C-alpha cells in the first residue's frame, strides 16, 4: 500500500504538539533515546475525529476495487504502516506486541465467514489491535536508541575503557588466537550501553564493522593477540566504528524484561480476579478441548492469562517457554485426560503456581537489541535526522 498515511501522522503530531504548546521540532532535536510506551497510540485511538480520519484514509487505500469490503489479509500491512508512523519498530522488535497483532487479526478472520470486513469492522479491529499494542508497550516499553558514535567515543575516553577491555580479553583471548578474531569477538561482548550497535546484525557488520577493521594494520590483525596489543587496537577499532556511526547513525530498538514470578504471585493472591479470569478462560476454550486437558490446550489457556500474570505469551521468550513446559509437567497438566470445569481450573492454577516458584527461584532476564532497518515514518518527531534504510532485520 502507499504510505501516504505517514504524512497524515506527521500533520496530526504537529497539530497535537501545537495544542500542547510545543514546537514541531521541540525537545526531540538533540535526543538520542526515545521511549515508545504506547501513549501516543492510545492518544490517537481516543481522539475520535483523528482516528476516524485515519480509518477513512487507510480503508480507501486498501479497498482497491471500491466495493466497501476489505480482505483481512490487508490488516497486517495496515497496522505495520500505522505503527511505523507512530514510531513502533518493525515486526520482531517486540514479541508481545507482535503476538497481540497476530491474535486480533486471527480472531477477526475466524469470525468472518467470507474473509472480508466492512469499514465498521475494520475500524473496530484496528482499534483493538492498536490498543492491544499500546497496552503491551506500556507494560514492556521499547527504547529507541539513535547511535551516532557519541556514546562510544565517551566510553573509549572514560576510565571504564581499560578495565573493560582487559576483562573482555580474558574471555576472548588465548594463546595463538589472531587479533582479528579477538577484536570481532570483543564487539559481540560490548553492548548498546557502551555505544556499540549489535555487531551480529548483517548490515552493521558490512557497513560499520568491516570498514572499521580495514582501517587497522592488516599485518597485525593476523598476528596472535597480546593483552596490551588488544587493548590498544580495540581502542583504535572503536574509534573507527564511532566515525562510521557518525556518518551513518544506526537506530536500535532495545527492550529489557525481568520475569521473576511476582506478577503470577499477585494474580494468585487475588482470588476475585483469579476466579473471574479462570471463568473467562474456561468459556473461551474451544469446544473440542472442553473436556480434555492437553498441553496445547493448557498453553492456549495460559496465553489468555499472560497479561494479568505479567509473563510473556508462549513462543515470545524461549527461556520462559522452558519454565512453562516444566510447570505443566509438574502440575501433571499434559496428559490429555478428561476433566470437568473445576478440574481444568485447578490444573491451570497449579501450573501457574509451578511457574511462579520456578521464576521466583531463577528469574529470567531478557534483553533484546534489534536494528531498525525500515525508516520510522514519524522519526522527524523523534530524532533530528532520519534513521538508515538498510536490509531486513535479522
From TrEMBL:
Residues 1-31 are annotated as: Disordered. The keyword Kinase does not apply. Keywords: Calcium. It comes from the Eukaryota. This is EF-hand domain-containing protein. The keyword Iron does not apply. InterPro entries: EF-hand-dom_pair (IPR011992), EF_Hand_1_Ca_BS (IPR018247), EF_hand_dom (IPR002048). One of its GO terms (molecular function) is calcium ion binding. Transmembrane segments: none annotated. Residues 55-85 form the EF-hand domain. PANTHER family: CALCIUM-BINDING EF-HAND FAMILY PROTEIN-RELATED (PTHR34574), EF-HAND DOMAIN-CONTAINING PROTEIN (PTHR34574:SF13). Residues 10-19 have a biased composition (Basic residues). It holds the Pfam family EF-hand_5.
Amino acid at each position: 500500500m502507499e504510505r501516504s498515511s505517514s504524512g497524515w501522522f506527521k500533520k496530526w503530531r504537529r497539530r497535537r504538539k501545537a495544542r500542547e504548546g510545543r514546537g514541531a521540532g521541540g525537545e526531540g532535536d538533540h535526543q538520542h533515546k526515545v521511549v515508545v510506551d504506547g501513549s501516543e497510540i492510545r492518544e490517537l485511538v481516543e481522539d475520535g475525529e483523528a482516528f476516524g480520519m485515519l480509518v477513512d484514509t487507510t480503508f480507501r487505500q486498501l479497498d482497491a476495487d471500491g466495493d466497501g469490503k476489505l480482505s483481512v489479509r490487508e490488516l497486517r500491512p495496515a497496522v505495520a504502516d500505522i505503527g511505523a508512523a507512530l514510531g513502533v519498530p518493525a515486526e520482531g522488535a517486540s514479541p508481545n506486541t507482535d503476538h497481540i497483532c497476530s491474535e486480533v487479526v486471527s480472531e477477526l478472520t475466524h469470525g468472518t465467514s467470507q474473509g472480508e470486513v466492512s469499514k465498521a469492522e475494520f475500524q473496530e479491529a484496528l482499534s483493538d489491535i492498536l490498543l492491544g499494542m499500546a497496552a503491551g508497550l506500556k507494560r514492556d516499553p521499547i527504547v529507541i536508541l539513535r547511535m551516532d558514535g557519541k556514546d562510544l567515543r565517551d566510553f573509549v575516553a572514560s576510565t571504564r575503557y581499560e578495565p573493560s577491555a582487559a576483562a573482555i580479553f580474558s574471555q576472548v583471548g588465548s594463546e595463538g588466537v589472531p587479533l582479528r578474531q579477538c577484536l570481532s569477538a570483543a564487539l559481540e561482548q560490548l553492548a548498546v550501553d557502551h555505544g556499540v550497535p549489535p555487531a551480529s546484525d548483517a548490515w552493521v557488520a558490512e557497513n560499520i564493522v568491516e570498514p572499521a577493521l580495514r582501517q587497522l594494520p592488516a599485518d597485525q590483525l593476523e598476528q596472535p593477540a597480546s593483552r596490551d596489543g588488544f587493548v590498544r587496537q580495540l581502542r583504535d577499532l572503536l574509534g573507527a566504528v564511532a566515525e562510521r556511526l557518525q556518518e551513518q547513525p544506526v537506530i536500535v530498538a532495545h527492550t529489557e524484561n525481568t520475569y521473576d514470578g511476582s506478577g503470577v504471585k499477585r494474580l494468585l493472591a487475588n482470588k476475585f480476579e483469579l476466579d473471574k479470569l479462570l471463568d473467562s478462560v474456561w468459556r473461551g476454550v474451544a469446544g473440542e478441548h472442553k473436556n480434555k486437558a492437553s498441553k496445547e490446550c493448557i498453553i492456549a489457556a495460559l496465553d489468555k492469562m499472560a497479561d494479568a500474570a505479567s509473563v510473556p505469551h508462549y513462543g515470545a521468550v524461549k527461556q520462559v517457554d522452558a519454565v512453562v513446559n516444566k510447570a505443566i509437567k509438574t502440575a501433571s497438566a499434559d496428559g490429555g485426560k478428561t476433566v470437568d470445569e473445576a478440574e481444568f481450573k485447578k490444573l491451570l492454577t497449579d501450573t501457574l503456581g509451578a511457574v511462579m516458584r520456578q521464576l521466583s527461584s531463577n528469574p529470567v532476564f531478557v534483553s533484546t537489541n534489534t536494528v531498525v532497518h525500515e525508516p520510522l515514518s514519524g522519526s522527524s518527531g523523534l530524532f533530528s535526522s532520519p534513521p538508515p534504510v538498510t536490509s531486513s532485520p535479522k
